[in-house]
């Protein structure tokens, strides 16, 4: 297992979608100076690190996941110097910042792609994956066709305007397919290392890596892509040993072999993540009709594969999925956070989830957001104009905000001791003081229904028991008495050898 930078062992992340966090210059869109002005807020909440979505030059057909210049930030957020200042200001506060690296594809406007489209052979001819004739489509992949002088179809990764960078095929089977060791794929990888080097030298603390598991093509069991990331790991070990690497892969057995420090458990694939928060009967609904068993089963499979290390991160949400508040009410969200903030792996809180920001319904898609747009609306700070996000005219806002008169705001929740904000704040602070609850503490599941009960154990053997009871029904957990460290929700008492836990309650108990 790759040794982690020390700070990652206790990190609690806050995900910032830069467009929507804080606008400092009144143009209706968030920016770096806005983020800098809110670093103290993030710290006060208790988060120690930030993951910021792509902030590089882009035509924004996919909110910046279509990069047109990897070494220059998009002017709408500020300058490279402003981003450097953001790193510096975060470091001053003992916080760390991960950038979002998008190594799989670029925008069609990237100069590499423009060169690659030319009929005449040049340095970038093999930077992307092209078939050798326009009449040949790459089977199993989408393609961009008929827009270049070059005779060929170009493989795309996500949207059809995101041409796939060429890292080769695991087992090339067509004349136009190259292997990872060929000069084209090798040059692409070197170019990507150069991008990483550039930002790490400027002060970034590492990367969240977009679609990290899909770089080498026709690589069903990931062997080629693992090999690629091992190569990157060797580079980082040599030049930037303290850079943190978190993958959007969703298969920790593979990503960790590739030298990533942590991986996400995500809303796609076989994770059963959605069973918890985002399905018709989520486990965390007080209706108590959900099912947590399949999630735990899958979690444990991954946990064993990652040597029982806390390397699987469970986010509260992200820019690709519905807001928690779309399926859970504030009370239910408190219990969900009691779970999220007592699990192994680094917690990732999506901006605004700490106040239960709602999914804004019925919006027109913005920058390739489509159904994701409603979860990307501007942060709600207070009750002033545009909820304190921007001084721009309302109609100029990047995405319209939640129109509800009772929309949650940071200010109102910070003033109310019983709010979701305070619960999240208290849970993070408990985690920070309790090694058993932190990222690398072990987990053993004791019960996997209503309630969900698990034991967390620190390296020094000190342990905590966590009882999560989202349903309305009271439950009993037979165990020896410990010291109650925290109760989220209604209450619990110890009687006759049992913890009797009220419905809608989570309890964290220190086992002496
Ligand atoms: C995953 C990102 O999280 C998502 O927002 C993006 O659209 C795709 N990757 C493509 O880069």
From TrEMBL:
It holds the Pfam family Alpha-amylase. Residues 15-376 form the Glycosyl hydrolase family 13 catalytic domain. GO terms for biological process: oligosaccharide catabolic process. It comes from the Bacteria. InterPro entries: GH (IPR017853), GH13_cat_dom (IPR006047), O16G_dom_2 (IPR045857). Keywords: Transferase. PANTHER family: ALPHA-AMYLASE FAMILY MEMBER, NEUTRAL AND BASIC AMINO ACID TRANSPORT PROTEIN RBAT. Belongs to the glycosyl hydrolase 13 family. This is Maltose alpha-D-glucosyltransferase/ alpha-amylase. It comes from Treponema bryantii.
């Amino acid at each position: 297992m790759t040794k982690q930078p020390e700070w990652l062992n206790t990190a609690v992340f806050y995900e910032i979608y830069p467009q929507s966090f804080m606008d400092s210059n009144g143009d209706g869109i968030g920016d770096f100076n806005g983020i800098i002005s809110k670093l103290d807020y993030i710290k006060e909440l208790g988060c120690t690190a930030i993951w910021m979505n792509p902030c590089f030059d882009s035509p924004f057909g996919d909110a910046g996941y279509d990069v047109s210049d990897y070494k220059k930030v998009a002017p709408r957020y500020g300058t490279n110097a402003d981003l450097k200042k953001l790193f510096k200001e975060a470091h001053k506060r003992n916080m760390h910042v991960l950038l979002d690296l998008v190594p799989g594809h670029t925008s069609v406007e990237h100069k590499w792609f423009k060169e690659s489209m030319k009929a005449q052979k040049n340095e970038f001819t093999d930077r992307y994956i092209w078939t050798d004739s326009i009449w040949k489509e790459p089977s199993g992949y989408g393609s961009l066709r008929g827009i270049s002088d070059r005779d060929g179809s170009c493989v795309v990764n996500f949207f059809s305007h995101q041409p796939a960078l060429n890292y080769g095929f695991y087992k090339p089977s067509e004349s136009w397919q190259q292997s990872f060791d060929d000069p084209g794929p090798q040059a692409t990888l070197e170019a990507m290392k150069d991008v990483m080097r550039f930002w790490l030298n400027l002060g970034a603390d590492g990367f969240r890596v977009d679609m990290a598991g899909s770089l080498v093509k026709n690589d069903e069991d990931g062997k080629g892509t693992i090999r690629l990331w091992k190569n990157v790991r060797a580079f980082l070990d040599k030049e930037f040993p303290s850079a943190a690497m978190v993958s959007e892969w969703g298969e920790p057995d593979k990503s960790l072999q590739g030298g990533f420090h942590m991986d996400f458990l995500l809303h796609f694939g076989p994770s059963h993540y959605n069973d918890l928060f985002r399905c018709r009967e989520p486990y965390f609904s007080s209706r108590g009709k959900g099912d947590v068993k399949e999630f735990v089963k899958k979690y444990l499979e991954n946990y064993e594969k990652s040597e029982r290390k806390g390397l699987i991160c469970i986010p509260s949400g992200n820019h690709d999925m519905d807001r928690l508040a779309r399926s859970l009410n504030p009370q239910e969200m408190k219990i969900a956070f009691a779970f999220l903030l007592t699990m192994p792996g680094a917690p990732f809180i999506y901006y605004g989830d700490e106040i239960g920001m709602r999914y804004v319904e019925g919006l027109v898609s913005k920058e390739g957001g489509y159904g994701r747009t409603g979860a990307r609306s501007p942060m709600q700070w207070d009750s002033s104009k545009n909820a304190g996000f921007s001084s721009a005219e309302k109609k100029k806002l990047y995405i319209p905000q939640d129109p509800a008169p009772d929309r949650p705001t940071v200010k109102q929740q910070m003033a109310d001791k019983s709010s979701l904000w305070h619960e999240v704040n208290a849970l993070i602070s408990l985690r920070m003081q309790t090694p058993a609850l932190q990222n690398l503490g072990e987990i053993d599941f004791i019960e996997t229904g209503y309630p969900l009960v698990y034991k967390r154990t620190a390296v020094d053997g000190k342990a905590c028991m966590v009882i999560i009871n989202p349903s309305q029904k009271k439950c009993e957990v037979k165990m020896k008495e410990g010291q109650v460290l925290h109760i989220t929700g209604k209450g619990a008492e110890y009687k006759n050898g049992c913890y009797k836990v009220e419905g809608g309650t989570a309890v964290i108990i220190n086992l002496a």
